[in-house]
Amino acid sequence: MKNKAITDREVDFAQWYTDVVKAAHLAEYSNVKGCIVFEPNGYAIWEKMQSVLDKMFKETGHQNVYMPMFIPESLLKKEGELIEGFAPECAWVTQGGAGNALEERMAVRPTSETLFSDYYSSKINSYRDLPKLYNQWCNVVRWEKETRPFLRTREFLWQEGHTIHETAKEAEEETLRMLNVYKTFFEEYLAIPAITGRKTEKEKFAGAEYTYTIESLMYNGVALQSGTTHYFGQKFSKAYDIKFLNRNNQQEYVYQTSWGVTTRMIGALIMVHSDENGLVLPPKIAPRQVAIVPIGNDEQIVQLANSICDKLKASGVTAFVDTTDRTPGYKFAEHEVNGIPVRVELGKRDFENGVITLARRDTREKITVDMNCDIVNEVKTLLDNIQSNLYDRALKRRDELTYVCQNMEEVEKIMNTKPGFVKAMWCGDQECELKMKEIRGTKSRCILENEEPVGDKCVCCGKKAKHLVVWGIQY
RNA sequence: CGGGGUGUGGCGUAGUUUGGUAGCGCACUUGAUUUGGGAUCAAGGGGCCGGGAGUUCAAAUCUCUUCACCCCGACCA
Question: Bridge partners of A28?
Answer without folding.
Answer: A37
